[in-house]
Amino acid sequence: MSVVRSERRPRGELSRVLVIDDEPDIRELIDLTLSRMGLAAACAGSVSEARQALAEGEFQLCLTDMRLPDGDGLEVVRYISEHHAQTPVAVITAFGSTENAVAALKAGAFDYLAKPVGLEQLRALVKSALRVSDNQRQDDPLRSLTGESVAMQQVRALIEKLARSQAPIYISGESGSGKELAARLIHARSAQASGPFVPVNCGAIPENLMESEFFGYRKGAFTGAESDRDGFFQAANAGTLFLDEVADLPLAMQVKLLRVIQEKRVRKVGVATEEPVDVRIVCATHRNLRDCVEKGTFRQDLYYRLNVIELRMPSLRDRMEDIPMLVAAILDKLCGAAMPKVSPAALQALAAYAFPGNVRELENVLERATALCSDGVIEPGDLQLAPDEIGGEIPGRGSETLDDYINRLERQAILEALQKTEGNRTAAARLLGVTFRSLRYRLERLGIE
Fold it and tell me: Under a CB-based contact definition with an 8 Å cutoff, are residues 83 and 54 in contact?
């Protein structure tokens, strides 16, 4: 059976939607709805017909059923993600098939609809998806995640995929590793890009003010409520709400947050009725959220609501090869054309430092160094990586320079790990708590065969 072209396709440069379903009635219903929205449609009844249609032209959106005669919707999602990455794809799944929906989102789907298809939901999904398609034609903002290491390339690729989805996202990683920047980039590429991005530090809000800060309040609801005020959810309406350090939310607030995520409605303090909100939730924490669940400090049901897809930001220790690029980018931001040079010895000192504060600490180190350096050149002493408060020599260092001392300790730790693992580099990297690529970089730098 060949691909069925819609007879209602309007003329002109219109957004095109590919509809894939083996039920003619469903195709007809969706085709009619799209036509009334002023969109051009093409219909296919199988995976093979869908591939044929995709080979013949570009689409701004694809809608596919999960069950098809020669495959399933996940196959279509993966094919489009690999060969037509700029095309958002949504799946239509049987009512109650949550596992299928989550699998589709993780495979790169933008969103999903449950059968029977509600026309209002369909129209809302189509409008959001077309905004995603428009946003992806704009300049790529992902280059602000500096670095060409494998770890950063994987992060950028995943952000590109996540931005096309409506799924809640959990960003994990150490403090200073760029979690908020990743959240902003996801927002910038998403259907909510034209809406607000509202970052909230959950650990900085007093517990007695949380409900009013998140949901807003009516005048007179409590002492000091002198006027009506919107909360974070209302401020982020039609946009993205970024919940940083979400593990710091008290259990009572977690219950209220779970309800809002499920119902997509909020009630201001002092108001009897609820109001709808259209907000995408992205959350982050430097703590292990699963450990928090096991300890009873974080609700399991909320964890599964928030952690549909996880994006892990690598530590700077796991991508030391990016340090030269990061240094250049940070100095350009700090000094512009007047940026100082960095001596080879200073660059070596940076590469040998563990950076517990990650990129944020690197920024602080370089900002201090630009103020201390002489003749426009940053030297190791300008970085002040050694703790001044220790005083005197570091125990066991003798007359070694700081660089030699750090390199000796690093070499010793690596050799001990290799000895314990009988030369297995992958196992040694795991034992040291670094990636295999990071270990290989250190072996080359230290000249370890």
Answer: yes
Respond yes or no on whether the N-terminal peptide bond of residue 141 is cis (omega within 30° of 0).
no
Distance CA 395, CA 411 (A): 18
Same topology, domains 4-135 and 395-449? Answer is: no
Q: Would you tell me how many other CB atoms lie within 10 Å of the CB of residue 333?
A: 12
Token pair 């690529």: residue: 437
Strands (E) in 66-155, as ranges, are 67-68, 71-72, 89-93, 111-114
SS3 category, 401: coil
In the numeric block, the tokens 């314990």 are attached to 420
**Selecting from 3.30.70.100, 1.10.10.60, 3.30.300.20, 1.10.1060.10, what CATH number does the domain 395-449 have?**
1.10.10.60
CATH of 4-135, one of 3.40.50.2300, 3.10.20.600, 2.30.30.140, 3.10.105.10: 3.40.50.2300
- DSSP string covering 245-257, please? TGGGS-HHHHHHH
Q: Which helix (H) or strand (E) holds 61?
A: strand 61-65
DSSP line for 320-364:
GGGHHHHHHHHHHHHHGGGPPEE-HHHHHHHHH---TTHHHHHHH
* Residue written as token pair 């009572």: 252
The candidate with the shortest Cα–Cα distance to 232, out of 265, 199, 185, is 199
List of long-range contacts for 258-261, beta carbons under 8 Å, 24+ apart: 258/299, 258/301, 258/302, 258/305, 260/215, 260/233, 261/168, 261/302, 261/305, 261/306
Q: In 161-206, which ranges are E strands?
A: 169-172, 197-201
Distance from the Cα of residue 405 to its chain's centroid: 38
Phi and psi torsions of 212, nearest 5°: -70, -35
CATH number attached to the domain at 142-312: 3.40.50.300
Place of tokens 């196959």: 75
CATH of domain 316-385: 1.10.8.60
The answer to whether the Cα torsion of 171, 176, 180, 181 is positive or negative is negative
pLDDT in tens, 400-435: 555 566 677 778 888 888 888 888 888 888 887 777
Domain boundaries, the chain: 4-135, 142-312, 316-385, 395-449
Residue 87 in contact with residue 109, Cβ under 8 Å? Answer: no
For 112-153, write each residue's pLDDT tens digit: 777 777 787 788 778 777 765 555 444 444 556 888 888 898
pTM comes to 0.58
